[in-house]
Amino acid sequence: MRTSTKQVGSGTNATAGRPRLTVIGTGYLGATHAVCMAQLGFDVLAVDVDTTKIERLAAGEVPFFEPGLDELLQANLAAGRLRFTSSFEEVARFGDVHFLCVGTPQLPGRQNADLSYLHAAVTALAPHLRRGSLVVGKSTVPVGTAAALADRLAVEAPGVELAWNPEFLREGFAVEDTLRPDRLVFGVASTPAETILRSVYAPITNQYETPVIVADFATAELVKVAANSFLATKISYINAMAEVCEAVDADVTTLAQALSLDERIGGKFLRPGVGFGGGCLPKDIRAFRARADELGVGHSLTFLSEVDEINLRRRDRIVQLARTAVGGSLAGQPVAVLGASFKPNSDDVRDSPALAVAALLDGAGATVTVYDPMALDNARRARPELTYATSAAEAVSGAKATVLLTEWAEFGELDPAELATLAAAHTIIDARHTLDSARWRAAGWTYVSPGRPAMTPAVPAQPDVEPLQRQVQEAFAARAA
Ligand SMILES: NC(=O)C1=CN([C@@H]2O[C@H](COP(=O)(O)OP(=O)(O)OC[C@H]3O[C@@H](n4cnc5c(N)ncnc54)[C@H](O)[C@@H]3O)[C@@H](O)[C@H]2O)C=CC1
Ligand SMILES: O=C(O)[C@H]1O[C@H](OP(=O)(O)OP(=O)(O)OC[C@H]2O[C@@H](n3ccc(=O)[nH]c3=O)[C@H](O)[C@@H]2O)[C@H](O)[C@@H](O)[C@@H]1O
């Protein structure tokens, strides 16, 4: 570990022994971090280049859907612990510890991470940093980024030190994960930097005895991408098993259940289906692979390309199931898509498998109608070419196939008998293995899910048949019951 003689945090603004915190970048990560740090009792000032976002946050409105965050934002604004600004000068003057939370998306047309936002944030902040303080990177970065930024700060803001403190929160559980993380990782180059980070997180570590891993920059950066790569690999592993199950009419959900009962394997991140998406797992495994290539160890991570390919193949598989459901060609066929966000309890549609499948169906000529409880606005912006409905029933009306792609709880509550009266044909493709197949089959639906044999209806579908036929079928069904 590198050591430093700099007096980190000297000349601090800290009151009552507590450092003042700033957060740079107020997206999913930064807004959550700012609110949660204020909730822990710190005075927090957050900045973003997106002035609309800053105005909304300052007015008590979270610009995205994250359970529980609105309430905490409003409470901490009211308590005067949390403020938002567009001024980096003000941030530099205010803060003892500055958390970098800007985006590191995939570079267009390439696999690597785009570090330009991170460098722009340092460029905006560094000239105003006039006293000792600690800049803490939280964004997910290729290994080596922290060392490069530390070198920049040494020149552009002498007396200011860098640390790297990767974040592991999940969207949908962001508040809970921030206030009670599984572990904390501090990538530091000096003991004072470690001490400051320990004091910032003391309200958490004191309460929960949260394990703290102290490491050098490179190890801290690697922990983050290694964790996301492992999670992605687990999902693609079970989805690879789904592909094999499909070849022999075996059932991947039963297989996954049996695997999960082995404590060494565990059941988490072993849910097969349409695969992973979101603003992180896909871009992180690609950036990690690309960085390994640059470091001359690309051969160690070739499996991550396979993980990515298995994942993307699942999207095609769902389209194939829809094609089969409508009898061969999707051209002109109305298809209902339930779900647009990349996972439930989030309105994030970045690299969403649901929207990707909807777009593939649209590309194959289907007339696609998408419904999502929370992500419709984001979906409309990302895929304006699709049609959107304001309820599941509206999306399913007239559909020749219905595809469930995000496992929102409300989809589990749908009444399959009612939907059967609205749909033009009765195949439900449950790409997330989330519905009660028996209930849907009892209401006349053919239940199809990837990695499992198709299940025909327990009773024939009602609305498609003529009244006389229907009476006969009802009589048979009553006799069979
Ligand atoms: N979303 C998540 O659940 C998690 C994200 N991460 C990582 O955190 C980082 C941020 O991710 P998200 O919050 O999802 O991205 P995001 O895109 O939601 O937010 C990034 C924010 O940074 C702002 N920004 C860009 N350039 C800026 C600059 N020069 N100065 C100030 N603000 C600037 C943007 O306007 C935007 O509000 C990424 O590296 C991501 O991999 C890590 C763990 C969880
Ligand atoms: O770096 C990040 O941004 C974050 O990425 C993921 O969190 P997140 O993307 O919010 O969501 P996950 O719960 O990990 O789900 C990711 C995707 O995998 C899919 N998934 C998840 C689990 C599973 O068993 N199967 C499966 O297909 C989900 O539907 C979703 O599309 C990680 O879980 C977080 O620890 C990490 O901090």
Automatic annotation (TrEMBL):
GO molecular function: NAD binding; UDP-glucose 6-dehydrogenase activity
EC number(s) recorded for this UniProt protein: 1.1.1.22
Enzyme active site: C280 (nucleophile)
Span of domain UDP-glucose/GDP-mannose dehydrogenase C-terminal: 336-437
Superkingdom assignment: Bacteria
Binding site for substrate: F168, L169, R170, E171, K224, F269, L270, R271, P272, G273, G277, K343
GO BP field: polysaccharide biosynthetic process; UDP-glucuronate biosynthetic process
Binding of NAD(+), residues: D48, K53, T104, T140, E171, K283, R350
Pathway listed: Nucleotide-sugar biosynthesis; UDP-alpha-D-glucuronate biosynthesis; UDP-alpha-D-glucuronate from UDP-alpha-D-glucose: step 1/1
Similarity section: Belongs to the UDP-glucose/GDP-mannose dehydrogenase family.
Descriptive protein name: UDP-glucose 6-dehydrogenase
